[in-house]
Specification:
Strands 1, 2, 3, 4, 5, 6, 7, 8, 9, 10 and 11 form an 11-stranded mixed sheet that branches. The protein has 3 domains: 3-61, no CATH class; 74-126 and 242-398, 3-hydroxy-3-methylglutaryl-coenzyme A Reductase, Chain A, domain 2 (Alpha-Beta Complex), CATH 3.90.770; 132-220, Hydroxymethylglutaryl-CoA reductase, class I/II, NAD/NADP-binding domain (Alpha-Beta Plaits, 2-Layer Sandwich). α4 packs across α14, α6 (153-161) packs across α7 and α11 (290-301) packs antiparallel against α14. The chain has helices spanning 3-11, 26-41, 55-61, 102-115, 139-151, 153-161, 196-213, 233-238, 252-259, 263-281, 290-301, 308-311, 346-355, 363-387, 390-398; strands spanning 74-84, 88-96, 119-130, 133-135, 168-178, 181-189, 217-220, 240-250, 285-286, 314-321, 324-334. It contains 15 helices and 11 strands.
Length: 400
């Protein structure tokens, strides 16, 4: 079948988009699908069709019905000095964004941090969760199922870990009961993989055992207590992905010279904006813009962009210490990876290589880098607000 014939069939609804690969290669199917969309929508897709990624490889691992590739501008910020447990060096940070002034702002924060001797960064915990929804006959039976999970933990741990060479079941906690429904939160360690696929497969095996041994019914593999790709208090309290903290003490003269403001001014803005303002609005994120830095570095390194909603949770603190500025960020819920998923895409791998964290045994190092990058961006924005520079920076660099 020729490309023209395939496009005609698509336009006449005689063929599905996913069926094209039955007749041609993935690369040809991508071109045909794009040509069909051009006719269907009367749009020219020349830029979407210009790419260097291995589209065949990507179509097997990362997406379906390919038509090409999205390109996002990528900038660099740094050097950023990190005094971490896993990353103890200066890094240049790749950032993919279309928001003018963002990279410049992060770069200013990085310059301030580096001039101050670097920021501390530590990974507090490293877990991934999956929490299914289970149905029982009544509340009494629900409690019995909760006890079954608790009493059989060692056996269930063995079953879960038989599905993976990297994942470990650490605990089942909390186990929430709502009427006759049970929501056990399975907590795993997953190594350098972000781990959602890993913990999903492992949890499904546990549920198979539950079905064999009890009368409980497995309703859904995810019951939203995980909590995946949504803002949730349980993730702030219990942690999910990498939980990371970064902080720094910036000398008074550097606050004045680099940030053009004072410790007192930054503390006041942080209090009225990030703390009181967030509380007044019922926000779960007591910060200025973690999402900006998390999204930019996620896109540059092939992380799952939907996890930005989790990664942007956290609290910024600031203290005036006799004119010096203590400043910190905490990210309790940062799902990231250095292997698997989008990290294998060519451009993402290059981004990870800029940071020196591509491949195995690098995920905790990446976590400290992300947290310190968030610290840099958060510091710069709060300082700009304190000095009254935000609107001018966006006018000059963001161009509206």
């Amino acid at each position: 079948m020729t490309p023209k014939e395939i496009i005609e069939k698509l336009l006449n609804s005689e063929m599905k988009l996913y069926e094209i690969e039955k007749y041609v290669s993935v690369k040809e199917a991508t071109d045909i699908r794009r040509e069909f969309i051009e006719e269907y929508s009367d749009a020219k897709l020349d830029n979407i069709g210009s790419y260097t990624l291995d589209i065949e490889r990507a179509s097997k691992r990362n997406m379906e019905n390919p038509i090409g590739v999205l390109q996002i501008p990528m900038g660099i910020a740094g050097p950023l000095k990190i005094n971490g447990e896993h990353c103890n060096r200066e890094v240049m940070v790749p950032l993919a964004t279309s928001e003018g002034a963002l990279v410049a702002s992060i770069n200013r924060g990085a310059s301030t941090i580096t001039a101050s001797g670097g920021a501390n960064a530590r990974v507090i915990s490293d877990i991934m969760t999956r929490a299914p929804a289970i149905k029982t006959e009544n509340a009494v039976d629900a409690l019995k199922i909760k006890q079954w999970f608790e009493n059989n933990f060692n056996k269930l741990k063995e079953i879960a870990e038989s599905t993976t060479s990297h994942g470990k079941l650490l605990k089942i906690d909390p186990i929430i009961i709502v009427g006759n429904y049970v929501y056990p939160r399975f907590v795993y360690s997953t190594g350098d993989s972000m781990g959602m696929n890993m913990v999903t497969i492992a949890t499904e095996k546990i549920l198979d055992e539950m079905t064999r041994e009890t009368s409980a019914i497995h309703i859904a593999l995810s019951g939203n207590v995980c909590v995946d790709k949504k803002a949730a208090a349980i993730n702030i309290i219990e942690g999910r992905g990498k939980s990371v903290v970064a902080d720094i003490l910036i000398p008074k003269e550097i606050v004045n010279k680099k940030l053009k403001t004072t410790a007192e001014g930054i503390v006041e803005v942080n209090t009225v904006k990030n703390l009181i303002g967030s509380a007044a609005s019922g926000s779960m994120a007591y910060n200025a813009h973690y999402a900006n830095m998390v999204a930019a570095i996620f896109l540059a390194t092939g992380q799952d962009a939907a996890h930005v909603v989790e990664g942007s949770l956290g609290i910024t603190t600031a203290e005036n210490r006799n004119g010096d500025l203590y400043f910190s960020v905490n990210l309790p819920d940062l799902p990231i990876a250095t292997v698997g998923g989008g990290t294998s895409l060519e451009t993402a791998n290059e981004g990870l290589n800029i940071l020196g964290v591509a491949g195995s045994n690098k995920a905790l190092e990446l976590a400290e880098i992300v947290a310190t990058t968030v610290l840099a961006g958060e510091l710069s924005l709060i300082a700009a607000l304190s000095a009254g520079h935000l609107a001018r920076a966006h006018q000059e660099l963001g161009r509206g």
